[in-house]
Structures are given as C-alpha cells and as structure tokens.
Design a protein that fits this description.
Strand content: under 5%
Structural class: mainly alpha
Oligomer: single chain
Shape: globular
Helix content: 55-70%
Order of helices and strands: HHHHHHH
C-alpha cells in the first residue's frame, strides 16, 4: 500500500503531528499501560494499521505481554485486564463510536470510569481517546502504511 501523502515530509503536517505528540505526553496522569491499551483499542475500531503497529510495539517494548496485546479486541471476555482498564476500554469504545450511538457515551460507562480514575486522570483519558482518534483519522484518510515502525521512533 502506498500513502496518499508523505505526512512526515510536509512541513505543515509535521508541525501538526509534533503538537499531537506533545499533547499525548500531557496525558501522563493516566497509567502508561492504560494509555497504550486505549490507543490500541481505538486504532482497532478505526482500522488504523499505522497506529496499531506503533502502539503494540511500544507496549511490548514497555513490557506488555503478548497475551494482553492479543486480547485487547476481546477485552470483555478476557480475564487479563483490571477493572480500571476495562472501564477505560469501555469509555474508549463508546468515545470512538460516537456516530453509532445516538446518546454518545452512556452515563453508566462514565460512572464506571469515574470509579477508577480521579478528575485529572479522567481528563487525561478523554484527551487520550480524542488524540488517538485524530491520529487514526489522519493515518486512515492518507493511507499511511504499517509495519516499519521502530519503538520510540517519534520520541
């Protein structure tokens, strides 16, 4: 597959990506493992190979197990995730599939997330969901290829 645009080679796009990466680092109030799980789940839903390539490799390098990485898409049935991670994954799914539900994120999903995360962490979680969805859309629209990412490549 060939990319429609060389996003990293276009100065204005490169600048935008730098801002997205910087904003991503601001979501550090959330546990690193949870941040990667959120990125992986949203990227699965959006069919973003580039982000799946990046975030599964980054998570593995950070010590995430292959078992957990392989079960993210089936988190409801998997016993390997904490209740906090499950709440974050549920919020991720609902926040990613906004157009699929007339009411958006349910009060129940929000309440489950709020049981496990304080306001600072909830802000980071919501921001993480929004950021990865923006990155997914950028990559999917421009058909960015996957497979060549090296862990830590973008800082």
């Amino acid at each position: 597959m060939d990319a429609r645009l060389n996003v990293l080679g276009i100065p204005s796009a490169h600048k935008i990506l730098k801002h997205l990466i910087a904003a991503d680092k601001e979501a550090s109030a959330l546990p690193a493992t949870t941040r990667e799980l959120v990125k992986i789940r949203a990227s699965q839903i959006n069919g973003c190979g580039g982000c799946l390539d990046m975030h599964t490799k980054d998570a593995a390098q950070a010590g995430e197990s292959a078992l957990r990485l392989n079960l993210v898409a089936a988190w409801r049935e998997a016993t390997v995730f904490t209740e906090a991670e499950r709440a974050a994954l549920e919020l991720t799914e609902q926040g990613t599939r906004l157009a699929d539900a007339a009411g958006g994120v349910t009060d129940e999903a929000w309440a489950r997330a709020a049981e496990h995360y304080d306001e600072e962490q909830l802000t980071a979680l919501v921001s993480q969901i929004a950021l990865i969805n923006a990155c997914n859309r950028l990559n999917v629209i421009t058909r960015q290829p996957a497979g060549d990412y090296q862990p830590g490549q973008f800082g």
